Amino acid sequence: MADLELELYFYQQCGFSRSVLNTINNLGIADKITLKDIREHVEFEKELVAKCGNPTVPTLMVNGEMMRESEAINSFLVDKFLD
Questions:
Q1: φ, ψ dihedrals at 55, nearest 5°
Q2: Residue (of 31, 57, 33) closest to 44 by Cα position
Q3: Which of 42, 59, 74, 79 is 20 to 30 A distant from 30 in Cα terms?
Q4: CA 6 to chain centre
Q5: DSSP annotation of 37
Q6: Domain ranges for the chain
Q7: Per-residue pLDDT reduced to its tens digit, 47-69
Q8: Which of 52, 65, 58, 74 minimizes the C-alpha distance to 5?
Q9: What is the pTM of this model?
């Protein structure tokens, strides 16, 4: 598999974000994804708005392309990383 540049914009209090974080933990791939908590670091929220137009989470950036919706993100991660 080609290297993927993965960035997840999220915040802990969001149930949809927690779903994606659980998938990441279950797959053991936290070291493959840059995690960006927009509530802990305001610069990440500004970055997300600049890239996507609003601060909707979870948002997974895959090689610079935006992916939203926790179910779609979870399916993508399972397809790419489940052994």
A1: -95, 35
A2: 57
A3: 42
A4: 7
A5: E
A6: 9-58+71-81
A7: 999 999 999 999 999 999 999 99
A8: 65
A9: 0.94
